[in-house]
Amino acid sequence: MNDRLRTSAAAAALVLAATGLASATTGPASATQAEAKPAGCPTLKISDGWYGENKARIDALIADHCGDKGKKPVAVFDWDNTVIKNDVGDATFYWLLRNDRIRPPRNGDWSTTSRHLTPDAATALGEACPTGVRTLPTATDTRCADELLAVYGSGATTGGKTAFAGHDRRRMEPQYAWLAQLLRGWTTRQVESFAAAARAENLAAPQGATQQVGTARVTGWVRYYDQQRDLVRALRAAGFDVWIVSASPEPVVDVWAKGVGVDPSHALGIRNTTERGRLTAHLKGCGTVRDGEDEMITYIDGKRCWINQEIFGVRGPAAERVQPASRRQVFAAGDSDTDISFLRDATGLRLVLNRNKNELMCRAYENGDGRWVVNPMFIEPKKQKATPYPCASTGYTAGDGTAEPVRRADGTVIPDQRDTVF
User: Which of 161, 263, 281, 330 is a plausible cystine mate for 348, CB 3.0–4.6 Å?
Assistant: First the structure.
């Protein structure tokens, strides 16, 4: 293991204090402030996997808020590839296909499964999958399974036609939403049982395992990051209110979140509307988006909206806007551009697991306010990106899909950034 990952919290704290860099690199939570807090504040127990001074910085933040009186400080984690390695939405979708648990749409009309599904995709799915069955026989019908897998996994049909269109790319990812929408007809409890079965299989499978879905070999394993379990434990012991926000279906996230001690009441995911106790193919709304309009999920700016609405009680159009510091999370953790808005909202530290995502790494490496903490993934970390992140040209994706420069709050462009934490 890289020696930089073995830096101890104590040594890093001494380095920060000795060099006078504590306030510049840790924001409000410095090593010297930590010493002034009451004895007994929790710290991270696991040192392996933490890069450089990262563990010390997080311990300092915890100490800075340990014993806070009044309102609990809030910590918010993305889920997939942030708290766990791999993707629980994918794991559940693969399980559904392997176990014939996807219901066909009424009258074989696949356009009813998503208002963003293109006619080309609806036609391809209608030709590949049977009608007149209670559930699709995807365990054995490889043509149907392959078409579903292509539309969900790549956003295109097996024939290469675009599968989704007409959405705001800062508020909605139809591929992610489609998994929740394909759960139409099941109850929440049934979906939780599907997720639990997928969870058991993926945790039992050896690291690196694959599984057969249709004619494809796909990822067949998931692991919790021990370091993130440890971090959630320390935050909760220090009095933080810890939440999960994910772009996977909420019943799926609920099942997995229990594995790090987070109650389902503190897990936010894509929420379906219900009808007579069963999930529909429509989604709950947030901010200015009403239930059933299917235009905003827990994705980029949608994560901000759902956090504001469900954690801080902000309703209506205001939920879509950045809130005053007193109504924002102190700590946030994520791994992808899909997490950028709620990470930027964090007032204390913003932990980024480096998966070489352009906008996220542009903002994290520029580190304009000193609150960003970049760490390699704890399992199978990425190698160093050979070329700089294209911050000054195409690092940002606008709502209409246009690639643009990544800009600071004042409108100036962030220069290209080199990959230095890997």
Answer: 330
